[in-house]
Specification:
There is one protein chain. This protein has 154 residues and is an all-alpha fold. It has seven helices and no strands. The longest helix has 32 residues, at 2-33. It is elongated.
């Protein structure tokens, strides 16, 4: 009977050591996922920042009915499917992308300089395609004019 108790105790100890080891490894994985580098990477994904040099880019177009209208045409062709008809980031294709497309009514977008928006539109990132090859420089600026008007509406 004593032999049986010894092996039971040995088995219990072995299982306990394995469970404690697994628990320790699991906790270290959790800590690795919440370390500062991981959090910084997550914030960078959510807060997409253009380089500071982009802020110096100025829109050469004046705001006119013509530039707004041309920008709206381009928006309807290239942007509405993700950003939605009214620019809230709620387009039919946007919801399936994981990260929600920009809401042009959000203060974080409104406060960005035209040059930063132009840079993002030109270069793209992740699900946002680059439009450098698809649209001329003038067309990209027309889109910026329209986005500014869109952001003013409720």
């Amino acid at each position: 009977m004593k032999k049986y108790n010894f092996y039971t105790l040995l088995l219990f100890c072995a299982v306990s050591v394995i469970m404690l080891s697994a628990s320790s490894n699991y906790q270290s994985l959790i800590y690795k996922r919440t370390d500062s580098k991981f959090l910084q990477d997550t914030v960078k994904q959510v807060a997409w920042l253009a380089p500071a040099s982009a802020d110096s880019l100025k829109n050469p177009l004046t705001v006119s009915q013509e530039s707004i209208s041309k920008g709206e045409e381009l928006y309807n062709m290239y942007c509405f499917s993700c950003h939605g008809d009214t620019g809230y980031g709620d387009g039919p294709a946007g919801g399936s992308m994981g990260i929600r497309p920009a809401n042009f009514h959000d203060q974080r977008v409104i406060k960005q300089k035209d040059g930063a928006l132009f840079w993002k539109l030109t270069n793209g990132k992740g699900n946002m395609p680059p439009f450098k090859e698809a649209l001329t420089e003038e067309q990209r600026w027309q889109l910026i004019v329209f986005l500014r008007e869109l952001g003013k509406t409720e």
